[in-house]
Amino acid sequence: MPHEPGNEVELWDLWKSFGSTTVLQGIDLQVRSQEVICLIGGSGSGKSTMLRCINGLEVFDRGKIYIRGHLFDAMGKSTAERRFVRRSRQSVLNTLCMVFQQFNLWPHMTVLKNIMTPLELVKKLPRQEAMDRAHAVLAKVGLLDKQDDYPAALSGGQQQRVAIARSLGMEPSIMLFDEPTSALDPALVGEVLTVMRDLAAEGMTMIIVTHEMGFAAQVADRVVFLADGRIEESGPPKTVFGAPRSPKLQEFLKTWSQRNAPLS
Known about the structure:
Blueprint: E1 7-18, E2 21-32, E3 36-40, H1 47-54, E4 62-67, E5 70-72, H2 79-88, H3 90-93, E6 96-99, H4 111-121, H5 127-140, H6 156-169, E7 174-178, H7 186-201, E8 205-209, H8 213-219, E9 222-227, E10 230-235, H9 237-242, H10 247-259
Parallel strand pairs: 3-8, 3-9, 6-7, 7-8
Antiparallel strand pairs: 1-2, 1-4, 4-5, 9-10
Helix pairs in contact: 4-5, 4-6, 5-6, 6-7
């Protein structure tokens, strides 16, 4: 399919396997500018693999991915050719940042240096400009007073907020989140979700893998349910959560509700 103007990310007939296990089976997904997409589904449904294909961390087997109108097609390429494609797409991928389950902060650097370093090395910003931008994003996530601390002195929620600030410092057009609260104690989840809500309200294009159904119901423009590597159902939160059609989605939500408070 050709690129459709207005879409930030497009996946067309995306397939991905690991050995004999097929993880993604013909995924079609289009994400418009400033849209918030929440991906839900059970373990092994393909959610994280999809994000990693978008971000260039996994090479997909078949299909097409457009990022801001730039086509990436790995079909039929040799390993060397795929590596070249990955390098050539880097200028486009620099407009996209990913926040992982683990915080991936450098333990030997202060919070400030964790944010400044990629700005200086990747963005090639002068030191003072990198520092000013780091201060701005730390203020945005409410952690400016922690700039001189090391990651070990922070709570898990604070570390994840630093990781988000580090991504924001790169001034991305699109942000991917791979279950950013799954490694946190329940008491710390809210502070990270608050930052993500603020980003959604400001119009950041986001694709979020999450098990926080209440958050998805409140923030997502669209909820996409994956099962067995396929998009089983997709739509506005009110429809997906309030009137699910797919038996697999009905069972997934039933299991989730048995373990959690009901969706408001």
